[in-house]
Amino acid sequence: MKLLVTGGAGFIGSNFIHYMMKNYPSDTIINFDLLTYAGNLENLEDIRKNPNYHFVHGNICNDELLDYVIDQFAVDAIVNFAAESHVDRSITEPGVFIKTNVLGTQTLLEVAKNKHIHKYLQVSTDEVYGTLGSTGYFKETTPLAPNSPYASSKASADLVVRAYYETYGINTNITRCSNNYGPYHFPEKLIPLIITNALENKKLPVYGDGKNVRDWLYVEDHCRAIDLVLHRGKPGEVYNVGGHHEMRNIDLIELILDKLHKPNSLIKHVSDRPGHDRRYAIDPTKITTELGWHPQFTLEQGLNKTIQWYQTHMEWWHKIKSGSYMDYYKKHYGSS
Ligand code: NAD
Ligand code: DAU
């Protein structure tokens, strides 16, 4: 397969490229990425010289460049990870979320249509479903009810994908996964922020009462789900991905502190996120029964691996945390 992976320099995209190069060494992968603040080619340094891996610096809104790349490499499938992905940033700067996540997706689909691409896979999110109360699960049939500008841009993109399947018959799939964590996770997101701040004995900002629930999945389990959908997903179908690893933020933070032998006194409650979804939880029955997907890592195993990765890759995150990200952090959380 000749696979165009957009957003491959980000967290999940770079893990996916590693996963695919390991499991399909004769496939060709073209990583197409704009290298925004979240894109980092150091994530892929070890495979940079592999002849089956290519990097193209570009914007998914640029149809001419996409046309050229698809012809040049005779691309037959696209997996779209490229997005603005951080909910907090979408609250302060929503415009770029609409441009990249909605217009970028439509541009990719139009190119996929014109170039007769065999498969287009959209990596979406459970956030398109909005929030749950204390019971229940998101199914593929749950109505879309996004609450943040980020979630609304992803939901809009999903609708555009649907339209390209229904109208033009493009072979599309959408995956909607719960919260990922693991290596190369940018430290603006909860788990890497907590691990790296705790390692530096810095305060750990907890939004509101900390009782919001997220359903955590180790990134490699998500990559395996995308691989299955890419190869065996039924045209036009949506697949939810999640491993039933629900946890309240405050409990997760205390668990991480415990594993790092750091005191709970580092925890600092701060103002809540506006429109903060209370609970996410995925029902993965469809992908489990149709495609045989199961998570291979428990939350305990995944967290241990992740903590160990951040402890042994300090240089990777020190560089990020000392760069322009620091300005964002200070503006968002103050200087503590
Ligand atoms: P990320 O922010 O770490 O990476 C996004 C990547 O996209 C970066 O490399 C960035 O440079 C690139 N990018 C941004 N705008 C671009 C553009 N216009 N053109 C080309 N490249 C561009 O994101 P992530 O956490 O790895 O998420 C990847 C995808 O998975 C996103 O679509 C996100 O919505 C989805 N998702 C994420 C999670 C999660 O927990 N992180 C869960 C479910 C779904
Ligand atoms: O559910 C999938 C989504 O998960 C993805 O679509 C998004 O791209 C990804 O960023 C993630 O969104 P969340 O908003 O759930 O993740 P985040 O790590 O930002 O926050 C997780 C929870 O922790 C959420 O309830 C907010 C809270 N939080 C977050 C930060 C950054 C805090 O309490 N303090 C913090 O400093």
Please write the CATH class name of one domain.
Alpha Beta
**Average pLDDT figure:** 97
What oligomeric arrangement do these chains adopt?
Answer: single chain
CATH superfamily of one domain: NAD(P)-binding Rossmann-like Domain
Query: Helix- and strand-based class?
Result: alpha/beta
> Hey, roughly how much beta strand do the residues contain?
15-25%
Estimate the global geometry from the Cα principal axes: globular
Percent of residues in helices = 40-55%
Order of secondary-structure elements: EHEEHEHHEHEEHEEHEEHEHHHH
Q: What do we call the CATH topology of one domain?
A: Rossmann fold
Q: What is the second-level CATH architecture of one domain?
A: 3-Layer(aba) Sandwich
Notes on the structure:
Belongs to the NAD(P)-dependent epimerase/dehydratase family. dTDP-glucose dehydratase subfamily. Its cofactor is NAD(+). It comes from Sporolactobacillus kofuensis. GO terms for molecular function: dTDP-glucose 4,6-dehydratase activity. With 336 residues, the protein is of the alpha/beta class. The protein has a domain at 2-181 and 217-241: Rossmann fold. It has 12 helices and 12 strands. The strands form 3 sheets. It has a 7-stranded parallel beta sheet, sandwiched between helices. Helix 1 (11-23) packs across helix 7 and helix 6 packs parallel to helix 8 (249-260). The radius of gyration is 19 Å and the shape is globular. The protein binds nicotinamide-adenine-dinucleotide and 2'deoxy-thymidine-5'-diphospho-alpha-D-glucose. 2'deoxy-thymidine-5'-diphospho-alpha-D-glucose binds next to helix 6 and strand 8.
